[in-house]
């Protein structure tokens, strides 16, 4: 910017000439009127109403004029800038009004359309099956019992006759809660709920305990590090394995339908004695696939039987740990994985399908409340 000069000729400042100011004003007003959108109006504003715009550059030269010329030049340039400012404001209001009117047309919502066109979701089949199995035993007089998922080692192991040197306590199976000496684990089965029930509920006792359990296992087609179990416990005077067999048969009938045979084979669990695994007759081939010339069965691999659960009579040491007289009371317990029962019942080959979160998988099982 030039310094003030009393001998300066105003004609020499071209930007301040009336014709030049009028030309810059006309160009600005034409650009504003030609803007069809708010973005185009923004470009016009930056070109004609900003620090580097012609009218603003001309205003910056006013200080170089002689005192007698400054007033006239200031009035002319100021009026031009104000006219551009007013034109911008008016056009801004027009374009915003046009935009809002267009939104009302293009984004209009027809409130008369059906409101429930969105497909309904579905309960998870694992949760539905766990509730169904619990209901079977509730109908037989059992109570549903629950307990914490972060459990003390005494409830998870010691009270269940699992000694400190048992392999199940090692890191390959159990997830310990830090620090290492906290004595707390993520429960590896729902059996601790049975111990808590024995300690807090009066006898006779009939409880079923569904819930989430944790194992340090690799994820594959048949194993999960987090899965659901359901276990049952009955403690009363005079209970025998015949009573246990009847309860298991009721479970099989409820899940797969009546008419399937079950069998018990010797097994070992620290908290039951004697112990057994439960197998049922294949619900697909009904054992026919084992016969010569019969079609193979993918469900039971042509063995005719499917292993579904573990069971046994409650070990007297467990009863003693809970303050119960084993000479007076006896009991039985059984347990199974809910996901495995779901796979068997519906022919699912990949257990990971149950937790992939695909709603199409859940919807295939229908909806229940």
Task: Report on this structure.
The chain has 369 residues and is α+β, with helices and mostly antiparallel strands. It has two domains: 10-106, no CATH class; 125-363, BirA Bifunctional Protein, domain 2 (2-Layer Sandwich), CATH 3.30.930.10. It is built from eleven helices and ten strands. The chain has helices spanning 18-34, 38-48, 54-60, 67-106, 125-139, 153-156, 191-200, 241-256, 316-321, 338-346, 359-363; strands at residues 143-144, 150-152, 175-176, 184-186, 205-214, 226-236, 262-269, 272-281, 305-314, 330-337. The chain has a seven-stranded mixed β-sheet, with helices on both faces. It is elongated and about 120 Å long.
Give the secondary structure arrangement, pairings included.
Layout: H1 18-34, H2 38-48, H3 54-60, H4 67-106, H5 125-139, E1 143-144, E2 150-152, H6 153-156, E3 175-176, E4 184-186, H7 191-200, E5 205-214, E6 226-236, H8 241-256, E7 262-269, E8 272-281, E9 305-314, H9 316-321, E10 330-337, H10 338-346, H11 359-363
Helix pairs in contact: 1-2, 1-4, 2-4, 3-4, 5-8, 5-10
């Amino acid at each position: 910017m030039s310094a003030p000069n009393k001998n300066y000729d105003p004609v020499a400042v071209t930007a301040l000439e009336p014709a030049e100011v009028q030309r810059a004003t006309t160009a600005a007003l034409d650009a504003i009127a030609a803007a069809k959108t708010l973005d185009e109006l923004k470009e016009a504003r930056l070109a004609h109403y900003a620090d580097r715009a012609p009218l603003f550059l001309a205003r910056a030269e006013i200080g170089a004029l002689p005192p007698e010329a400054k007033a006239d030049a200031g009035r002319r340039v100021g009026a031009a800038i104000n006219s551009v400012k007013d034109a911008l404001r008016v056009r801004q209001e027009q374009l915003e009004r046009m935009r809002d009117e267009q939104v009302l047309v293009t984004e209009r919502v027809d409130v008369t359309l059906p409101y429930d066109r969105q497909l309904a979701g579905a309960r998870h089949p694992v949760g539905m099956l766990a509730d169904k199995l619990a209901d079977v035993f509730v109908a037989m007089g059992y109570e549903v019992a629950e307990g914490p998922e972060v459990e003390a080692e005494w409830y998870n192991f010691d009270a269940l006759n699992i000694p400190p040197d048992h392999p199940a306590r090692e890191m390959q199976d159990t997830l310990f809660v830090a620090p290492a000496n906290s004595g707390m684990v993520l429960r590896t089965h729902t059996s601790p709920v049975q111990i808590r029930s024995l300690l807090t509920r009066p006898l006779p006792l009939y409880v079923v305990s569904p819930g989430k359990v944790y194992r340090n296992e690799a994820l594959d087609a048949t194993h999960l590090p987090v899965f659901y179990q359901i276990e049952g416990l009955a403690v009363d005077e005079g209970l025998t394995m015949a009573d246990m067999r009847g309860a298991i048969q009721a479970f099989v009938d409820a899940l797969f339908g009546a008419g399937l045979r079950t069998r018990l084979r010797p097994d070992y669990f620290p908290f039951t004695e004697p112990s057994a695994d439960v197998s049922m007759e294949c619900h697909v081939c009904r054992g026919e696939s084992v016969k010569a010339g019969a079609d193979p069965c993918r469900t039971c691999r042509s063995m005719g039987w499917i292993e579904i659960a573990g069971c046994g009579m409650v070990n007297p040491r467990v009863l003693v740990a809970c303050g119960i007289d084993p000479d007076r009371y006896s009991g039985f317990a059984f347990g199974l994985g809910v996901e495995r029962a779901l796979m068997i019942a519906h022919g699912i080959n990949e257990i990971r399908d149950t937790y992939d979160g695909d709603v199409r998988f859940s919807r295939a099982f229908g909806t229940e409340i």
